[in-house]
Amino acid sequence: MIVLDEQLLGRNIEEQIARWYQGAICFITDLRPNTDIKDDAIPKLLQQENQPTFVTINEQDFWRKTAISGQFCMVCFALSDSRAREIPQRLRDLFDHPLLDSKQKRMGKMIRVAEKEISYYSADDMTVRNLSPH
Question: Rounded to two decimals, what is the model's pTM?
Fold first, then answer.
């Protein structure tokens, strides 16, 4: 399951991802409808789902600030809002990387996708590592 941050609503990103991703795709607001979801509540919501990958463009509020758990993955895109349309292809490329090409390999990781580099840390090792291109 891919869970998109509410900031990505209205951009057809979910439709573009659905062209290549076979699992469920929803927005964080779908997990708790009709309520205001604060950033610090997101990890708890994700833990209630079956191994979701949360995708956000709000990198500043999540990277190195959110407690990660082995039950979910977070992907933070360090892109300007005007470049959000790049997320589906960049996410697909990320999911094709040998270290992240299965749900099991992604779980427990906080991943930051920047212009020219990808870095991550995990729930059991907070050391930030750079992901080499594949």
Answer: 0.94
